[in-house]
């Protein structure tokens, strides 16, 4: 190990961020300005979203605080702890089987369809659409990024984040690159995820996501993980072989923030 004191080099400043959900409140407030939804109406207006869990928890909390009903569509293999949290905050849960995003039964598509039907039936509703909503990455560009830069006093060498929609790393990364071009952006991505192939080869694909092959509870943010647990051993697929691998649940991939924020919050 190299001793930084001996080399007279300062240790790098690295930020690892757990994704905040600022944009949810902003999306709701913007919809209020347009008259799409009205807080504390009778009957209550409703916000819809398709999510694997974390956004659903945040939306249930934000919606209740701002005077709305929330309807969350989840894949049925979501950890029961997440479902319980969402229900405990007063949201309605709809569970669907895990399928490809191209399938009309995918949880995002179901949430969109349910929101549309609700509106067509005379209700006031909003589909948050976190995967395509421009406010996702833009909110992190305008808030999270500047906060990190200010609180670190402009001393950031690396920014590390996970990715669901990609909004956090896109927005924060784009801001940090605008004020310090040498900042390195690192995506912590579970092995077997389709994002690796998207970044490296331009195709969002993972062998573990082939229909009929999807592994349930691959990596769950609620469940405590142990390196040698059965769950961990059977959660990762080595793309270079047909066997399973057992190592820490992330790969470090340098990213270009501009690719992520061009057109939508996802990688293009």
UniProtKB/TrEMBL annotation:
One Pfam family hit: PALP
Sequence ranges assigned to domain Tryptophan synthase beta chain-like PALP in this UniProt record: 42-201
Transmembrane portions of the chain: none
InterPro entries hit by this protein: Cys_Synth/Cystath_Beta-Synth, TrpB-like_PALP, TrpB-like_PALP_sf
Keywords of this entry: Amino-acid biosynthesis, Cysteine biosynthesis, Pyridoxal phosphate, Transferase
GO biological process: cysteine biosynthetic process
Cofactors named for this entry: pyridoxal 5'-phosphate
GO MF annotation terms: transferase activity
SUPFAM superfamilies from the UniProt entry: Tryptophan synthase beta subunit-like PLP-dependent enzymes
Domain of life: Eukaryota
Keyword Oxidoreductase attributed: no
Family to which the UniProt record says this protein belongs: Belongs to the cysteine synthase/cystathionine beta-synthase family.
Protein name, per record: Tryptophan synthase beta chain-like PALP domain-containing protein
Organism field: Puccinia graminis f. sp. tritici
Record lineage: Eukaryota, Fungi, Dikarya, Basidiomycota, Pucciniomycotina
